[in-house]
Amino acid sequence: MKARLILENGAVFEGEAFGYLDTQVGEVVFNTGMTGYQEVLTDPSYCGQIIVMTYPLIGNYGINLDDFESNSIKAKGLIVREKCAFSSNFRSEFELEQFLKHNKVLGIEGIDTRALTRMIRSRGTMRGIITTEDLSETEISSYIEDYSSKGVVYAVCTKTIERYNGLTTSSDEQHKKVALIDYGAKKNILRELLKRNCDVTIYPAWTSADEILKDQPDLVFLSNGPGNPEDLAPEIEEIKKLIGVKPIVGICLGHQLIALASEGETEKLKFGHRGCNHPVKDIGKNRVYITSQNHGYCVTKLPKDFEVTHVNVNDGSVEGMRHTLLPVFSVQFHPEASPGPRESDYLFDEFIAYAE
Ligand SMILES: NC(=O)CC[C@H](N)C(=O)O
């Protein structure tokens, strides 16, 4: 069946539908990873977005039971050049198409993803509709105008407090108590903390600072998550109450929220950074790491008393910052990888070293 992507600038790309037949509106973004489609689709930070994979063949190693970053697809749609119908990998449990169908997500194949990506790069990120229906002009513009990314964090974060014990049980290993505030946390953040013997309590995004402090954590960890950080005014107020009281670290959205809670500023990037091949320089180590990224916003004004620890080698944007006096440290990229290179996972040791 035919399916179309209609962008807000009027461009139309036609391809073949696969997965679940539907109409959805979202922000159309591209990801340059050659692999990692399972992690990308289930990463809650993609909530509200339609993903274009620039690698031309997607689905060739299927979907397995271990690589989920949350328990369902959070993206609104998937656009590929060619979908692989029969996967070939010893870990594959089902096909990409089945996975999309089961999660009620529309995929479109046969799209010139190179032309589409070039258009997004030159025009900037745009809203778009994916559909198998014949929509009228009025329907198209009302879909696009009604689209908003507000509330996405509340849609994806945990609704109840969850507690996990660190993996090592030996009594001489001291377990650090980590309060992970979930704005749409990827599972690999939890896995990395548990692997390092931390006992982790996951709190819904709206949890008050008082409630978190009552549990006496050794470290507060602000997760990644979807949407515009500026939409989270109440959460920013709670973070303000934690800064200087408990050590705080953050990844991606968490990093942006620390900036906003300390009177820094964030802005939307023209087309974002999404992929597994973004070079980031750790200024202290004078080394470049290839990192996994997925963000549309970045910190443009550093808060007072903060210094830049990491910088993006491609465009010079801020990739990490640290308070010069208080235990506060955060990065814009994803040291938990999943998907992508794991070479910056040393940052989890640095994060945990901040614990009291
Ligand atoms: N992965 C993330 O946490 C993304 C943060 C934020 N939603 C952005 O797009 O910039």
TrEMBL record:
Which pathway does the UniProt entry assign to this protein? Answer: Pyrimidine metabolism; UMP biosynthesis via de novo pathway; (S)-dihydroorotate from bicarbonate: step 1/3; Amino-acid biosynthesis; L-arginine biosynthesis; carbamoyl phosphate from bicarbonate: step 1/1
Check the record and name the InterPro entries matching this protein.
Anth_synth/Amidotransfase, CarbamoylP_synth_ssu, CarbamoylP_synth_ssu_N, CarbP_synth_ssu_N_sf, Class_I_gatase-like, CPSase_GATase1, GATASE
Q: What is its EC number?
A: 6.3.5.5
* Binding site residues for L-glutamine: S45, G225, G227, L253, Q256, N294, G296, Y297
EC top class named in words:
ligase
> Subunit details for this protein?
Composed of two chains; the small (or glutamine) chain promotes the hydrolysis of glutamine to ammonia, which is used by the large (or ammonia) chain to synthesize carbamoyl phosphate. Tetramer of heterodimers (alpha,beta)4.
The name on file for this protein is: Carbamoyl phosphate synthase small chain
- What is the species listed in this Swiss-Prot or TrEMBL entry? Fusibacter bizertensis
